[in-house]
Amino acid sequence: MTDKKKINLALVCTKGGHFEQMTNLSDFYGCYDHFWITNRSKQTEGQLKGERVYFVDLAHFKKPWTYLSQMGPVLKILAREKPTHMLSTGSGRTAFIPFLLSRLFRIKFLYIDTFSRVCGHSKFGTFLLKTKNRIFTQWKDPVNDNAIHIGPIFKQRENSNKRRDANYVFVTLGTREEPFFRLIRGVEELAKKGVIKEKVIVQAGHTKYASNHVEAFDFCMPEKIDELILNAKYVITQESAGIGTQCLRHETKFIVMPRDYQYGELPAKSDMHEDLHYRLEELGYTKVVKNLHELEKAVADLDYLKTGFNFNNSLAISNLHAAMEEI
Fold first, then answer.
1. CA torsion, ordered 11, 15, 18, 20, to nearest 10 deg
2. Is 160 a residue whose pLDDT tops 70?
3. Which of 60, 89, 143, 181 is most buried (most C-beta within 10 Å)?
4. Are 204 and 217 in contact (CB under 8 A)?
5. Do residues 100 and 16 share a domain?
6. Long-range contact list for 306-311, CB < 8 A, 24+ apart?
7. Model pLDDT for residues 19-74, shown as the tens digit of each residue
């Protein structure tokens, strides 16, 4: 049996939804001495106050030299912390170099593939499986013996403070650097037509847009986003596992408009090929739209969407503890 006092656990994740998923495992990693390797943002800086944290720059597979630039900083982190284990929720943009170095230094590496991939796996998860590594999955994979299903890693949260007299719609464009004008213009058009009658609050990120019909801001602390989702009449979002799961936990109805490479909303065709929102649409929890006409119809049909998705990460936590005990 591994002595918990001798464990030093590195938590490796990319900012945004991957970081959000990791924080849901606090009941697990809180049992061990741990530190973070992630990317600097308002989200990570705000939520990791008082924690041991190291920020590294994001890499991208279209710019392979950016991975090489991570090598020196990560080596210094590992030399200083001397971790016995690593746990990652992705993505490979942050976790690939730590994984390679974990093989070199014989550090046990645990990886949980993203909740946003229902059928198939992320690029990094696929790479790990092809190289004969075991991964943990949040959805069942009947094909790969090395894909161990542990269920969702999200905690269920109580909504005792949820307001039932919501008078605004919350729209979020995320943190990607590519602008998403198609969504914000569509929402503005529906507000002009009176289809959206409520006040519209938009988290616009890097999409610079001025309008008299919406109240927009770029970024804010995660706690504020959580509050906006909790008390919104409904949410309109890009495809985002983090936002989607927050809506599910808060019983807030939501509509998804995926980004599209052909409109310059993604840096590569292979980015954001997530299918979580389509599975949730099949289950009746959201509506996926691709244009203004479909968005307008989804708003009109909002009453047909379900709420009450149940999250329970106890299976995930028990499996992770067992994996930590393995030699």
1. 90
2. no
3. 89
4. yes
5. yes
6. 307/248, 307/251, 307/252, 307/253, 308/251, 309/248, 309/249, 309/280, 309/283, 309/285, 310/156, 311/152, 311/154, 311/155, 311/156, 311/245, 311/248, 311/249
7. 989 999 999 999 999 999 999 998 899 999 999 999 999 998 889 999 999 999 99
- How many domains does the chain divide into? 2
The two tokens of residue 247 are 């809506």
Give CA–CA dist 272/317, Å, rounded: 27
Global pTM?
0.83
pLDDT digits over 81-109, tens only? Answer: 999 999 999 999 999 999 999 999 999 99
At residue 221, φ and ψ (nearest 5 deg) are: -70, 150
Say which residues have a Cβ less than 8 Å from residue 186's Cβ, sequence separation at least 6.
Answer: 257, 291, 292, 295
Q: Which domain holds residue 278?
A: 168-304
In a domain, 89, yes or no: yes
The H or E element spanning position 226 is: helix 222-231
Query: Same domain, yes or no, for 93 and 13?
Result: yes
